[in-house]
Fold LacI family DNA-binding transcriptional regulator.
Amino acid sequence: MSSTIRDVARLAGVSASTVSRALSMPEMVNAATRERVQSAAERLGYAPNRAARGLITGRTGNIGLVVPDLANPFFPSVVKGIQARARAADIAVFLADTDEDPAAEVGLVRALAKQVDGMILCSPRAGLDELTGFAADTRVVLVNREVPDIGSVTFDNTDGMRQAVGHLAALGHRRIAWVGGPAKSWSDGERARGLTDAAAAAGLEVVKIGHFPPHYDGGYAAADQVVASGATAVVTYNDLVAIGLMARLDARGISVPNDFSVVGIDDIAMSRMARPALTTVSLPKQQAGRVAVELLLALLDDPDGSAGPSRQLPGELIVRGSTGVTP
Amino acid sequence: MSSTIRDVARLAGVSASTVSRALSMPEMVNAATRERVQSAAERLGYAPNRAARGLITGRTGNIGLVVPDLANPFFPSVVKGIQARARAADIAVFLADTDEDPAAEVGLVRALAKQVDGMILCSPRAGLDELTGFAADTRVVLVNREVPDIGSVTFDNTDGMRQAVGHLAALGHRRIAWVGGPAKSWSDGERARGLTDAAAAAGLEVVKIGHFPPHYDGGYAAADQVVASGATAVVTYNDLVAIGLMARLDARGISVPNDFSVVGIDDIAMSRMARPALTTVSLPKQQAGRVAVELLLALLDDPDGSAGPSRQLPGELIVRGSTGVTP
DNA sequence: GTGAAAGCGCTAACAC
DNA sequence: GTGTTAGCGCTTTCAC
C-alpha cells in the first residue's frame, strides 16, 4: 500500500542506496540526482519506514513515556511538554498509563523498551532496584524522582516548601498540618521533609496526617483529621488533595481562608478555578517535560550512555484566595 | 544489549525458526522442545523485536492516537480507555497532541501512519477531504466525529440535548442560551442542532451565542453575552466552558442556580468539584476509547478493511447544584 | 517436528 | 558520486 525506497529508486532511475543518501545526507549526492530523487519521493508520498531503518541504525526515533495516571492533571501537562519537544526533534512518543499500579509499570517498561531509543518515566512508583535494572537495559530519564546514577528532572521541593512556610508564617500561623500522598511516591517524602525542615527553621510546628490517595477524595477524607489536629493551616501533597480538602471544610462550615488556610502543590488549571482560588507552589510541568526530552536526547547522543547531569527546576508560590486572611 | 532470537536458539540448542514457532505457535512444536525454548527465553529475558517482526508480518502491533489537546480533561479520559483496551490486546499506543492545530494534525497523522497498524483520531479538526485521504492510506477510526465511510465512535448528542432541555423545561425555563465551542468542531454543530431541535419540540426558545474557545476562559468571556440575551438558563459546549461561565456569573453577583441555571456537557471530574456542582450531560469517555480500539481491531482483522459499523454511545444527564432551583 | 533459506525495507561498507 | 553487497531480527515457505 505504501511506497518503498525501491519504488522511488525505480521512478528516479537510480539505486536504492542513492535514494537513501539523497534523503538523509543530501550533500553526498550530485545536485541533479538529488532533485530527481526528491521529486520522485514527493510524487510517491514516500517516507522511509522507520522500523526498517531502526533495525539497521539501532535508532528507532521513538521514545517511551510512562505515567501513573493521566486522570491526574499534573501528568497531561508534563506529557504535553514532552510531546512538543519530541516532535521538534522528529521523535514519536509511545505513551503508557499504569493506573498507579507498580506491577503494570514494570511490564510496560519491558514491553516498550524494545521498540524505543529511550524512556521517560514520570513519577515512577517502582522500587529502586527495578529502576536501576531498567536503566541498565535502556536509556532512562526520570521525572519527579531521584535515583543514583539515573538522569532526572525534579522540582526543588525544599525551596518550594520554604516559600510556603514563609507565607504561612507571615500570616501568623504557628501550627501547620501536612497531608501526605502515596507512601510509594518519592516526591511525597521529599515534600514532607522539605516542609518539616522549613517549619523547624521558622519555629513552626508541623502535624503529619497520614498518607492519602493523591485525589480529590483523598483530600476530602483527610479534612476532618486536619481540623482535629489543631492546626490553622494545611499544606497538601498536591492541588487535587487541597481542593477535596477545601470541599469538606466548606461542607463543615469552616471558612477558607477566614478560619483556615490551605496551600497546594502543582498549580493545575483547576486551582485557579476553585473558589476560593487555591494558593499553591506552582511547578513548571511542561518545562519539566521538555527538559526531560533534552536530557534523554543528550543521553542517546552520548556514546557511553552514562547519566547526564540531572536538572532541578524551581517551584514558585502563587498566592491566591485560599490563604488570603490571617487567622 | 538486548538478546535476540539467535541467543535463545543457541541456549536452547535449536534453530531460530523453532524458537519463533515455540513462542508464537506453541502447538506446532514438540512439548519438550517448547519447554526448553521457553525456559531459555525466560532466562535471557527475551522478547521479540516488534519492529523486525512487523517488517515481515506487516503488523507492527502499534496504533497511533491523535488528540487536539491533552490539557482538556475530556481527552485524557478517552486516552485512558484506549490505553487500557490496547494493552489488553498487547498493543502499544503512539500518542500525539496537536495543540488544536489542524495543520499539525495532518503532519502527525502522516508521520505516524507508517509505523502503526491503524490510527484513532479524537475529535479531529481536519477537513472532510483530508480525513478521507487518511482513511485511504491507513486504517482509521474516529472518535467524536462522523465522516461517511469511516468507522467512528460518537455520542448521542440529540438525545443528550433532549434530556437537558427536558430538565430545563421542567424547571420552568422558557428561553435558553447556547454557548458554542470551536467552529471547526464537528460536535459543536451536532450539539447546537440537537439543542435547537429539542427546544423547538418542547416549545422553548434558543439564543445562540457565538463560538468560544473550549476552555474556562471561553466560558468566562461568554457569560456577559449570555446574561444580556435575556435567557434564564444556558447550555454550553462543554463543562470547562460552563465552569468559566459560572465564575463570571458569580463575579457579577448572579447566583447559580437561584438566578440562572447552567448545564454543561462531558462530565469531567472537575464538574463534581465545582461549587455549585455542575449539572451536565455525562459522556462515557473511557468507554468510547475502549470501543474505538475494538472497532479498529475489527478493521485490522477484516481482510478488505472496509469500515466496520460505527457506534453511538448514549449520554446521561447528571443533575447537580447548578440547575437546582426554579427561576 | 525441525532446520535451512529467503526476504520484509532499509542503510552502511565496499567497490568502482 | 553511485551501484552492489551484506545484513539488522524476525517469520515463513520449503525441504527433510
Notes: Residues 14-18, 21, 28-30, 33, 52, 54-58 of chain A lie near DNA strand D (CB under 10 Å from a C1').
